[in-house]
Amino acid sequence: MTEPLMLLGKPVVDAIEQNVRQRALVLANQNITPQLATILVGEDPASTTYVRMKGNACKRNGLTSKRIHLPESTTTIQLLAIIQELNEDPSIHGILLQHPVPRHIDEGTAFDAILPQKDVDGVSSAGFGLLALGHPGYGACTPQGILHLLDYYHISLSGLHAVVLGRSAILGKPMAAMLLNRDATVTVCHSHSRDVPSLVATADLLVAAVGKPRYVQGSWIKPGAVVIDAGYNPGNVGDVDFSACLEQASAITPVPGGVGPVTIATLLDHTVRAAEMSISQA
Question: Is 260 left (phi over 0), alpha (psi -120 to 50) or beta?
Fold first, then answer.
């Protein structure tokens, strides 16, 4: 086989961020600065890093970010009160509750407390319902970022058989819905699926999101398939055995440097869109 196309995230991020800066400048001329509120509960080091990265991305692209850091002991009721304040603040265009929250907090209830028009991370039940039915809304940022990545590299989805490994509420399920909306035929694999390797072997497009390092083996990959690795595990490795799958794929994302950076850029795009929508709704 010929050398596979490397689906790098950086050029996609550069294109999205250039567009975001241009739109933020248009809003600035109307005295509006898109603002993202990030809520971090507890002291998880990875979450702290992600929130800082999102704040830095806002700063360099003409957005502002309001960081709210709550103690580990925060209750669900206290968190809901903070979210309600942000819902009511017209200067806040997007709200992001960093996942995961401490176990004693009802995460689903907290996500669903975010107004759909401010749910720029695409985590609420209402947002997912809009997405699944093909209505305007904000898709979960990682699967939406994957679509940006595929579009940038001119990979058409119509008619492809896509296999999604994982059925999480913020990745696998919305990814499947987005692919269906783009006319792909979709199979979703999960912990109870039988003979996962055989199912993966039928995929024209594979999206791996299971949180298991190097889970997908090269022998599973259909020759010429597009492989999207949405996993990130300790040791800077994804859910795909990259070197083995490289021999079979026609296109593949590296880890790191593939899907991850596009997720944050997508969040910025959604926040600017929320600010734009706030004008029309005023």
Answer: alpha
Reported in sequence order, the residue ranges of the chain that DSSP labels E, i.e. its strands, are: 5-6, 35-41, 64-70, 94-97, 161-165, 185-189, 205-208, 226-229, 251-252
Assigned CATH class of 30-118 = alpha beta
**Using only C-alpha atoms, what is the Rg of the chain?**
19
Does the predicted model carry a pTM greater than 0.85?
A: yes
Catalytic residue among 35, 117, 121, 144: 121
Instruction: Tell me if residue 158 falls in helix, strand or coil.
Output: coil
DSSP per-residue string spanning 120-136 = TT--SHHHHHHHHTT-S
What's at 144, amino acid-wise?
A: Q
Q: What is the mean pLDDT of residues 123-132?
A: 91
pLDDT tens digits, 183-198: 999 999 999 999 999 9
CA–CA gap between residue 273 and residue 207 (Å, rounded): 26
Which CATH number does 141-259 carry? 3.40.50.720
Domain ranges of the chain: 30-118, 141-259
Instruction: State yes or no: is 121 an active-site residue.
Output: yes
Check if 98 is active-site.
yes
Clarify whether 269 is annotated catalytic: no
Residue 248 DSSP class? T
CA distance 113 to 126: 10
Q: Which entry of 35, 98, 117, 144 is annotated as an active-site residue?
A: 98
Instruction: Say which residues have a Cβ less than 8 Å from residue 143's Cβ, sequence separation at least 6.
Output: 171, 174, 175, 178, 207, 230
